[in-house]
Write a structure and sequence with these properties.
38% of the residues lie in helices and 21% in strands. The chain is of the alpha+beta class and 265 residues long. Strands 3-6-4-5 form a four-stranded antiparallel sheet, with helices on one face. The protein has a three-stranded mixed sheet with strand order 2-1-7. The longest helix has 22 residues, at 137-158. The chain starts with a helix and ends with a strand.
C-alpha cells in the first residue's frame, strides 16, 4: 500500500526510528501481519489470502493466547490455526469456554467480541534517549526543539492541545563508565523532571519549545551528562487546523472509511 510505505518513510525521516506496518481485513489479521514483518517491514494480507496466511500459524501466536492456554490447546491437538479450522466452534466452546470462542474467531481471522471504544487520551509524550552525547546548552536545546516538534505533530495528529507540560531529562550518574557494548545507549541515569501549566491550551511547537526551554533552565543540568530528553503533555481535545504535511496527514480523520485494519509497531 502506497500510504503505508509513505507512513514508514515519514516516521523514519521525522523520528529516525524504523517501524513496521501490517494491514488486513480485521484487527487480528493486521496485528499478526505486523508481527510477521518486524522489525522493519510492511505486510498486506488481502481478504482472499487470510486462510493461507493463518493455516500454518501456531495457535500460541494468536492474540491473548498466553503460555497456559497455548499448552492446553496443544494438549487437545490444536497446535496450528489449521487445527482450529478443521474443528468446530462448539468443540472449542466446550473445551475452553468463552476463550474457545475467541480462539475460534481469531484463527478464522475475525475479531472477537464488541469493538473496544477508544478512550480519550490524558497525556501525550515524545522522547529522544539514544546517542545523546553533547557538551553545550545550545546542543541540548536543539534536542528539546526536536522533541517539541515530535510532540506538536502528535498533538495535532490526534486532535489534542497541551494544557500542562513536563520536561524529563535522563542525567548520567557521576562516575558511570559506558561499556563498549552499550555505545549510544543512555546507560545508568537519574531521572529529573520539571513541570509547568500552560497559559492556554496549545499544540504550537514554538510555545511548547519556549516552555520546555524555561523548564530546562530551571533544572540547569550539565549538558555533558544529559542522555535523554522528553516532553510529556496533559491534553484536552481540540486543536486548530491540522497541517497537511508530516505525520499529521497520516493520522488525521479520513474522509472515507474503509474496511481494512492496520497496525504499526
Amino acid at each position: 500500500s502506497a500510504w503505508a510505505k509513505a507512513l514508514r518513510e515519514a516516521v523514519l525521516s521525522q523520528t529516525r526510528c524504523t517501524c513496521s506496518v501490517g494491514i488486513g481485513p480485521s484487527q487480528v489479521v493486521a496485528k499478526l501481519a505486523v508481527t510477521s514483518c518486524k522489525p522493519d517491514g510492511l505486510r498486506l494480507v488481502a481478504t482472499e489470502d487470510v486462510h493461507n496466511f493463518l493455516v500454518d500459524m501456531p495457535t500460541a501466536k494468536l492474540p491473548q493466547v498466553g503460555r497456559s492456554l497455548a499448552e492446553k490447546l496443544k494438549q487437545n491437538g490444536f497446535v496450528t490455526c489449521g487445527d482450529i479450522l478443521r474443528s468446530n466452534r462448539g468443540q472449542l466452546r466446550q473445551l475452553f469456554g468463552v476463550r474457545g470462542e475467541m480462539v475460534w474467531a481469531n484463527a478464522h481471522g475475525s475479531d472477537h467480541g464488541a469493538p473496544k471504544q477508544e478512550q480519550g487520551r490524558k497525556t501525550i509524550s515524545a522522547e529522544i534517549n539514544w546517542a545523546i552525547r553533547i557538551q553545550a546548552r545550545s546542543a541540548a536545546l536543539q534536542i528539546v526543539s526536536e522533541v517539541a516538534k515530535q510532540l506538536a505533530d502528535r498533538l495535532m495528529a490526534g486532535g489534542y492541545s497541551a494544557t500542562h507540560l513536563t520536561l524529563k531529562l535522563k542525567i548520567a550518574v557521576p562516575g558511570w563508565v559506558e561499556p563498549p557494548w552499550k555505545k549510544g545507549g543512555h546507560g545508568i541515569c537519574d531521572d529529573v523532571s520539571r513541570s509547568s501549566a500552560l497559559t492556554r491550551p496549545t499544540a504550537d511547537q514554538a510555545r511548547l519549545l519556549a516552555t520546555g526551554t524555561q523548564l530546562y533552565d530551571s533544572i540547569g543540568p550539565d549538558p555533558s551528562r544529559i542522555r535523554g530528553v522528553g516532553l510529556s503533555a496533559k491534553v484536552v481535545s481540540g486543536v486548530g487546523d491540522i497541517p497537511s504535511g508530516g505525520l499529521a496527514k497520516f493520522f488525521a480523520p479520513a474522509g472515507k472509511q474503509t474496511s481494512a485494519a492496520a497496525e504499526t509497531a
